[in-house]
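Why do we care about 3D structure at all? Because function follows from shape, and shape follows, mostly, from sequence. That is the central idea of this module. The next example makes it concrete: a single protein chain, its amino acid sequence, and then its structure expressed as tokens.
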Amino acid sequence: MKLEITDKITEEDESIIFKELLGYNLERIEDKNPRDLGIYLQDQAGQKIAGLIGNTHGNWLSIKFLWVSEKLRGQNIGSDILNQGENIAKERGCKYSFLDTFSFQAPEFYRKHGYKEVFVLENYPVTGKRYYFTKTL
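And the structure:
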């Protein structure tokens, strides 16, 4: 056996490790059918100006990204998109939501929407914080 250590991960290397882990997981996990969830707001030219990217899997909505163009912030667009995502998740049978956000992003926004802090990664990546939130839908 040979141990290789690198700071240059190739797509092939990542694919091999992911494929093997996925195979292991799929033999054991109860719900094998996660579904993507994308909600996009577009301007008249068809450019995305806000959106949510995540997925639903079993009981959980996982929100990966929620973004609103800076010129549109403060107009409840983020709230509307978040609420729509949660409603779709409930229609898909989800009972909970999960997301993470940095201290300079939107922890107060998510608290305002009923998310509860379950963990904070301090000093991330150096002096900030990374918050992990859940919510019962």
